[in-house]
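FAQ
Q: What does a multi-component entry look like?
A: The components come first, one per line:
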Amino acid sequence: MEYETPLFFHVMEYADRAETDVIDMVSGNPDWKPPEALRTGLHEFADADPDRFQYPPSDGLIELRAEIADRRGVDIDQVVITNGAGEANYLAMARAMERNRGSEILLTEPVYPYYPGKTTMLGGTQRFVSTDEAGQLDPADVRAAASDETAAIVVNSPNNPTGAVYPEETVRELVAAAEAYDAILISDEVYDHFDLSGQFSSALGVDSDHRIVTNAFSKSLAITGFRVGYAIFPPELVANARSRHMLVNVAGSRPAQYAVLHALRETDPDYYRRNRELLRERVETFTDALDAAGAAYTTPQGAFYVMARFEGYPGTLANIEQLIDEIGVAGMPGDAFGDSRSDWLRFALVTPRVEEAAERLVQYFD
Amino acid sequence: MEYETPLFFHVMEYADRAETDVIDMVSGNPDWKPPEALRTGLHEFADADPDRFQYPPSDGLIELRAEIADRRGVDIDQVVITNGAGEANYLAMARAMERNRGSEILLTEPVYPYYPGKTTMLGGTQRFVSTDEAGQLDPADVRAAASDETAAIVVNSPNNPTGAVYPEETVRELVAAAEAYDAILISDEVYDHFDLSGQFSSALGVDSDHRIVTNAFSKSLAITGFRVGYAIFPPELVANARSRHMLVNVAGSRPAQYAVLHALRETDPDYYRRNRELLRERVETFTDALDAAGAAYTTPQGAFYVMARFEGYPGTLANIEQLIDEIGVAGMPGDAFGDSRSDWLRFALVTPRVEEAAERLVQYFD
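Then the predicted structure of the entire assembly, as tokens:
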């Protein structure tokens, strides 16, 4: 079996090797600070008794699961703490496949490249449903593509790479589509704290035994390297997912879970609001500069990314590397996300230098 | 698909719920201290710049991989840092299955229960090769059981649960058996620092493109909850394993990796020696008391466990629970490890109260 290794790491390595000053807009790594309580939590943990350094419960520290269950309004038994959203999505997709109601996974186009990678690894096949230019997904298109072969429908809102935020009606209809075909809607909501539109709607708002919600603290607490995420399963699906988690990872890393728990308890809501506002300002700055250059772009409703299109400069890996070499701006090739975005380049707004990056782009394409 | 969930967590929960004073000898959780440098490393990390809180390289911090490669005498490209030995074994077994040279996994009997669990999860079948009463494995038996269907041979030395340490000749012949059937020898060496016999021999000592070695810092640094392990692959097998690791977990947890790196660099060899001697003393204390009771037992050559047999008291879950309830000693049922040990109980020597535990057992079975 060969996997399609996501291009992220390749592009990041290429940018790291460049000898010029490169503005890194490749990956969704927040450049803002984690909450202070996260650091305090880690210090506390470092001084704990030796027995605290041993296996946490396989499905995560019980206080952390309780905190999440309480915030999300679900039963604690439905919550499995995972090694980031990456493992949460892997468990969710594997769990959907194991129901033996087909082995096809419906994905959106454009798509976050880890989803097709996971699908292939799990022995599934993939079918893509196109979104519109703004990245919105029409549930009628999902129903048209679904069949008895459909094991799962995987969606991501706020969306990477398009920035689309699906309204409540879309989410409700996606759950209904999953139910109609006895499939599982997997709703990856890792950017939920970065909804700039006020329209974000969690799939947890639709009661159903046909949806799994995945999330992580990677983005909301600015700690992509800690690897603390979670999945919320319907009661009848959770046992096997928990077993798979145990058989793959035994448990997640305890210092990280402890620090996240401490941060959740002690962090003021203002922390989240400030980072969201920071992102909103960066979107404005970056798109204003693109406007000035007459470039086409999408204005994100949420998440960290702006997709831009420059006349005669398609979103290939070669072109991304050329921008790194010639103007020191590192983005991601649009075609990494699907054919529909092959003319586009994706820029992650995770640097204070978005204005400078936009100016370099404008000057280059002038 | 239903998995056989390992019993460890069930027994630990049962022991936790008991209202009496229970001596916990269930799981391989060290009760001794982690090295001081591990704590220092975690404190250092807690104060690091925000960019250090973001994704590490998928296959692990490069300094940690270099440190491991250097100590183990392998190329850094062969090393993948994993979420503990659990993920390392999962990746190794999955990688062996993906070669499409058969889907049967050869396991020892008795066996560490996670191995058959992983085999089933990966869609493989299992065949068991019996060890002798001391837990030694005869490579001729392995060859007799192997066939074109054999994808992998999974061994563990020092062994959980028997305490057997395989001599160099056994290890060499196991690698040869894997080569003869174009299978992969997976050598789980997580207890390598707890060889009490001086006979331990790593499979890395036998140069071959047919063996994968797995390990972790869980036991050697007394941090089962940190989840930092590694697998060393032959060059031609590493790429796909790295992809699977990325698609399942994205990366391991960075604070834990950083703390482990710091601990490896700063910890005196005396730390490891002291813990090994502590374990040696506990083995003596516990087996002396069992001797006094006329119980049968195995003297471990390594690892943390003593298997004991009490006349007319087979190693069932019900009997383990009865010991928890009546004398406050929590072990593991022998039959969790295979039929050959169904008359036995396994006790992990990870408590300073081994003498008291032995006395309680002696009195109970007197």
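Q: Is there any commentary attached?
A: Sometimes. For this entry: The domain at 54-266 of chain B is CATH 3.40.640.10 (Aspartate Aminotransferase; domain 2).
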